[in-house]
Each structure stands twice: as C-alpha cells, then as structure tokens.
Amino acid sequence: MSREIKFRGLEMDSPIGINWIYGFYIEKHGKDYNGSPCVRYWINDGHEEFEVAKDTLGQFTGLKDNNGKEIYLGDIVRLFTNDFEKSVEKYNMDPNRWTFIVCFENGCYGIKPAMPNLHHDEDLMFSPFWCDEDKEMHDFKNTEIIGTIHENPELLQET
C-alpha cells in the first residue's frame, strides 16, 4: 500500500488565530531567541514555509473518514454504526466509549480510546489500522473526525 506522505501543524504566532498548515515537514537547526542551540519545526505548503508548534505535528495516515476528510495523527474520531443511537440507548452505554485518538504505536498507525477508563477490554487499548497477518486496512466508512487533541481537549473528558 502506498500513501501520500504529508504533515500538518498549527502555525506559530498565526495572525489569524488557529491555522493548520499542510505540506512537507522540515526541521531546521539553529538558535532560539536567546542564542541557544535549538531545533525549529516548519511545514512547506508548496509555496512558502511556516513555523509550526512541534507538539501539534501530525502525519497523514493515508485514510479518510466517512466524509472524505483526511485522517491525521492527533485527530479524535468517533466510530459508529447505523444503529449507534439505538445501541447507546438500549445498553445504556456512554457514547464516549466510541471516541478514539489516532496515534502511532508499535510501528503502526491505529486508534486508542480517548477515555481508557470506559474500556475494560485490553484488545481495545490500541487497535492498529491493519493486521499484520493480512495487511488489510480497517473500513473507515463508519468513522467520523470530530476534532483534534489540540483544538478540542474537552472531547477527551468524561461527561
């Protein structure tokens, strides 16, 4: 499987507030404002370079959600079925049980629960996007991006 390699990050000191930059990731070694050695992080969008906050850098997973939106590391996604609301009501389950964070662990992309205390099954603590045995990708037609860990920390808190 091949995928487009690209990144996103929040622009540092953006004049327009929250501004995601998408493109190629660059590390530049230099000096900080005090003259001390440092590494600064940039994304080139194909036209110009923007400095971005290191902790907001996320790589494109190669997947899209049910709306066709690209899924990046750090996205918060909700998994659902056609009977999502009925299941929540019927079994009196917290809908946040289906809220996950896109992450990179053990050499692969996957999801982990946004609220681990709602899960009692060890298999759900990290679920890779594909299985090593068959290399098939999980179906993301029933996945929706509902935010990012950077812009929507409230989605990571129990209600």
Unreliable segments of 5+ consecutive residues = 131-136
| Mean pLDDT reading | 81
Q: What fraction, in percent, of the residue positions are helical?
A: under 10%
Q: How much of the polypeptide forms β-strand, as a percent range?
A: 35-45%
Rg over CA atoms: 18 Å
Alpha plus pi helix count: 1
CATH topology of the largest domain: SH3 type barrels
CATH H-level name of the largest domain... which superfamily?
YopX-like domains
- How many domains is the backbone divided into? 2
Q: Provide the succession of SSEs.
A: EEEEEEEHEEEE
How are the strands of the largest sheet arranged?
4-3-2-1-5-6
User: What is the overall shape?
Assistant: globular
Structural class: mainly beta
Q: Please count the beta strands (DSSP E, at least 2 residues each).
A: 11
The largest β sheet comes out as: 6 strands, antiparallel
Question: What CATH architecture of the largest domain do you see?
Answer: Roll
Query: How far apart lie the N and C ends?
Result: 39 Å
CATH class of the largest domain: Mainly Beta
